Amino acid sequence: MKNFKKKVMISIFISLVMLSVNVSLLGSTEGVQGGLHSTSYNALLNFNSLSDGVTNSSVLAIEEVAVSHEWNFKYSNSLSALERDSIEALHDIENSAVFQEGYNSYEQYNEIYFTQGESYDFVNQSYNVYLVMTVQGNVNQTCYTYGYSSLNETVYGPEISVGPIVYSSTTQYNENWAGYECYDPSYSITQNTASLTIPSITLSSHPSGYNEAMNGWIGISPYVGGSDPSNSNATNIVQTGFQRIFWYDSWTGGYNWGAYTIWYQTWSNGTSPAYSGGYPGMPAPSSGTSIEFSIVYNSNDIATYVAITLNNYYTYTVTTPYYNSPKYAQYIIETPETDQAGSGIYVISQLAVFSPAVTFVSPSVLTINGYSNLNTLLNNGYYNKYILNQSWGNVNQNINDAITTQSGYMEPNMTWVNSKYNLYGSSGS
């Protein structure tokens, strides 16, 4: 059994396109990690080269959120207007002096990732369009987010954030997560949806000198455990969820708590994600925040992530290429893989304490045969159960797995038990 790497409800959520770009002064078009196609900077920013279908899907995704939640949507009779205005907003960002200056400062870097996105505020009936430039380092990644606000019709930014590079669910390890993986033996899965309330994530009692972390996520994959059976070292999965990390910051030279974050990762038969990051424009949540996640696989080889913050009626989406037909849906709590003490060596983190238990609320999958909650799949035994129970040597990390029922839904439920994972001969409890 393999574990998964890190990273929302309506089947047509296609509202953002994220392109991973290898940039040089000559505009390289080399492939990126995972074998996915990358493009040059100029091609990326030629928004006319993006298909009308992608832009149209972004608008339809926002509308479908309104329909599914019965929220007011002022563009319900004028979707083409929102589509047109969104394209114009991307042009405004591209042509702005602040974005051009920011890009020119980093164009010599060999690895820059661009993410474009859109969010919608159902309270103010406003939208934001984003273009994010991520500069990848060995341990940290720095994101420069440029946005366009429909409220004042202006470009703003950059908003700068720095965080650790985190790998969830690598196939290198096989016992650093717990949860359930469901499947329909007759049909492929096109969508996975569940709501999560972010727990309090704190340190266990341990000596300093190594990372602690915890994340919870949903995913879809063509393979059991997200691992290609023809290559046990290759992960193939798309994921989205939340996390918090206590990690060694090479910039400050000390250990720090990172913020609670919402993330996505797309793996395509690689040993590191080809696409990953945070939802553009989405602020750091706090413990107790309820978020509805969904991942949709589009027949046009696209995976779309959606995160809806239910307390303020805000929707965020990200779309990446994904060239596999998923058959398995995952609901996982995990200790992700992080850089240890700035060494450049990525190892399993110690499991941070999380409380209360994490429940995947109202989970459902969509197959080509229609919607289904997990009741039928679980009752028929169409699932794999993964147990985090490391109890040998100096290692002792445990999570209790259970299925609970609320409002007619059978829901995966995970509870923290204990955490002791000694790295480099340290001792903890």
In short:
By secondary structure, the chain is mainly beta.
Output mean pLDDT: 79
Profile the largest sheet: 11 strands, antiparallel
> What is the global morphology?
globular
Percent of residues in beta strands? over 45%
- N-C termini distance: 27 Å
What structural category characterises the helix and strand content?
A: mainly beta
Which features would summarize this protein structure in a list?
single chain, 429 residues, mainly beta, nine-stranded mixed β-sheet, disordered N terminus, disordered C terminus
Describe this structure as you would to a colleague.
The protein is mainly beta and 429 residues long. Helices cover 13% and strands 47% of the residues. It is built from 5 helices and 29 strands. Strands 1, 2, 3, 4, 5, 8, 15, 16, 17, 24 and 25 form an 11-stranded antiparallel sheet that branches. Helix 2 (52-69) crosses helix 3. It is globular, with a radius of gyration of 21 Å. Mean pLDDT is 79; it is low at 1-50 and 424-429.
What is the topology?
Layout lengths: L16 E5 L19 H5 L6 H18 L9 H17 L1 H10 L5 E10 L4 E11 L3 E10 L4 E11 L1 E2 L9 E7 L5 E9 L2 E3 L9 E10 L13 E15 L4 E4 L3 E10 L4 E4 L11 E9 L3 E8 L4 E8 L6 E7 L2 E3 L6 E3 L1 E2 L1 E3 L2 E2 L1 E7 L2 E4 L1 H5 L3 E4 L2 E4 L2 E12 L2 E13 L8
Parallel strand pairs: 10-21
Antiparallel strand pairs: 1-2, 2-3, 2-17, 3-4, 4-5, 6-19, 7-18, 7-26, 8-15, 8-24, 9-22, 10-11, 10-18, 11-12, 11-13, 13-14, 15-16, 16-17, 19-20, 23-29, 24-25, 27-28, 28-29
